[in-house]
Amino acid sequence: MLTISHPYIPGKLELEKEEIVAIVGKNGSGKTTLINSILCEMKNEINVDGKDFCNERRYDELSAVFQDPSSQILAETLNDELRIISLYHQVNFELARILMGDFLFQNFFTLSDGYKKRFVISSILSSQPKYVLLDEPLSNLDRNGSKLVLEILPKGSLIAEHRTREISGLVDRVYLLKETGMREIEKEKLKDEEFLRKNGLRGFTLDNVDNGLLGEKILDFDYKDLRIEVRESEIVCLLGPNGSGKTTLLKKLSKKIYSVFQNPDLQFFQESVEKEVGNTEALRLFGLWDIRDKSPFVLSTGQKMRTLIAAAYASGSKVIGLDEPTVAMDGDGLIAFRKMLKLLKEEGRGVIIATHDEDIVNLCDTKIRLG
């Protein structure tokens, strides 16, 4: 059995070898903090089959997939990475081929964000640890990638994930993290929309934000064989599998529009959330008011994205581009995001969203499929 407890999070988490357990909770509730217990940097207790993991750090017994893929790569290609790992562990190369396909030999830094996530998941799972911790493993993945990851996820997995709809049929037990600590809940709660909304979780259906006719054309851009047009009050969604070029297209557009990309830490320029956003209405809209004095760098990934999107809203830009804006967003953030889109439409502004997120596709006025 794997057990994890943390001095700042009341309660204890338990994981048996023959089960898959989920951790759910709002942004900032402590999900990543629990996953990061494996780093042994705080006075947490993490035991594997009764032994203190931090004494020996046996990564064949316990390993982890963190949120940022670039933080844990050993080599430029997955093929080279697995050869290094095979010097110390028995490696399942077939599992890596299932997840990466033709990208097994491609340089990590040239991969899309979705395939970067697949790279690290392949690396960790192919080494076949007894237990594995996964922090938002489905973020940045398209539908096919998410399906593949869930199909190969081994028993003995602890998964922190916002996408409750996708994991509800897979997990054996569920822990809910709140400010008061963690407690086990019935897994059927992951399908209860009222419960999800009440606890700031995802998995409920968002109403569309249609508010009438679209206005004048405010952006006209040609890219390869595509023409991107945006009108006043229009939400345009760029859809397509990982590696289809959605992020590349947004980068091409970034000289013409205000863009928010996927790595938040590379886009902060101020020492506090309040200074980064610079607008009281936007801070309150995105639930950032109570953390306005904090450095954006210490926030959870979901809170970081909300900060950047709030700044985009406050910019006054006629067209805003958002690259996978809801990747690490909780239910409260999703509701705030929908409200922001409604306000932008009312103001006659346009939005371009590159996304795989099924929860927000019905908010789009126009859908452009790439790849």
CATH homologous superfamily name of the largest domain? P-loop containing nucleotide triphosphate hydrolases
Cα end-to-end separation = 44 Å
Low-confidence stretches: none
How many structural domains can be distinguished in the coordinates?
Answer: 2
What gyration radius follows from the Cα positions, in whole Å?
A: 21 Å
- Kindly provide the name of the CATH class of the largest domain: Alpha Beta
- Indicate the overall shape: globular
The count of strands amounts to 17
How are the strands of the largest sheet arranged?
6-7-8-3-9-10
Overall pLDDT level:
92
- What is the architecture of the largest domain at the second tier of CATH? 3-Layer(aba) Sandwich
What fraction, in percent, of the residue positions are helical? 25-40%
Described by strand count, sense and barrel closure, the largest sheet is: 6 strands, mixed
Q: Which H/E pattern describes the elements?
A: EEEHEEHEHHHEHEHEEHEEEHEHHHEHEE
- Sheet/helix structural class: alpha/beta
Strand content: 15-25%
CATH topology of the largest domain: Rossmann fold
Count the DSSP helices: 13
